[in-house]
Amino acid sequence: MAYKDPEKHREAVRKWNAAHPEKMRENCRRWRAANLENARERVRKYQTEHREEINERVRRSRAEHPDRQREWDRKCLYGLALGEYDALLTVQDGRCAICGRGDEHLCVDHNHVTGVVRGLLCRKCNGGVGLLQDNPGLLREAADYLEKETR
């Protein structure tokens, strides 16, 4: 049905979307897949035009729900369900898998190629492993270097 009044058309679309949420999401996914660069440009434009508003919403949300971002990261970035982080924490007795130090927050260490979670590390150990490019050979060389210097 064609509408001459754009506002009536927008209202009809809103009603249809509310009545058919699954179809609406599928239509959005299909459009985004077919128009990926256009979709990214729209997001960039919106973020640029509404930067302060977005930042304020994010600050407010983080203040109201401080653990939500960590939970989202664990789920989306590492594939850990809500209880899986806690299970790893229990297995490791709440301590870093490398240095054994108990930390307020342990980072999820994962293989950057396969995405497989290896364990939980304190910030210092996680940073060290990352700076040495997750390369066991470089880590061994670093250990050899440190041992040579102490002899």
Brief write-up:
With 151 residues, the protein is mainly α. Helix content is 67%, strand content 6%. The chain has eight helices and two strands.
Structure write-up:
The chain has 151 residues and is mainly alpha-helical. The protein has 2 domains: 6-49, no CATH class; 66-150, His-Me finger endonucleases (His-Me finger endonuclease fold), CATH 3.40.1800.10. Helix content is 67%, strand content 6%. The protein contains 8 helices and 2 strands. A two-stranded antiparallel ribbon has the order 1-2. Strand 1 (107-110) and strand 2 (117-121) form a beta hairpin. The protein is elongated and about 80 Å long. The model has no long low-confidence stretch (mean pLDDT 89).
Assembly state: single chain
Provide the structure class: mainly alpha
Order of helices and strands: HHHHHHEEHH
How many separate helices? 8
Measured between the Cα atoms of the first and last residue, the distance is: 84 Å
Main pleated sheet: 2 strands, antiparallel
* CATH domain class of the largest domain: Alpha Beta
Structural domain count: 2
Strand order of the largest sheet: 1-2
Radius of gyration: 24 Å
| Helix proportion | 55-70%
What's the overall average pLDDT, rounded?
Answer: 89
Would you identify the CATH architecture of the largest domain?
Answer: 3-Layer(aba) Sandwich
In the CATH scheme, what's the topology name of the largest domain?
His-Me finger endonuclease fold
The best one-word shape is elongated
Poorly predicted runs of 5 or more residues: none
Number of strands: 2
Q: What is the CATH superfamily classification of the largest domain?
A: His-Me finger endonucleases
Percentage of residues in strands:
5-15%
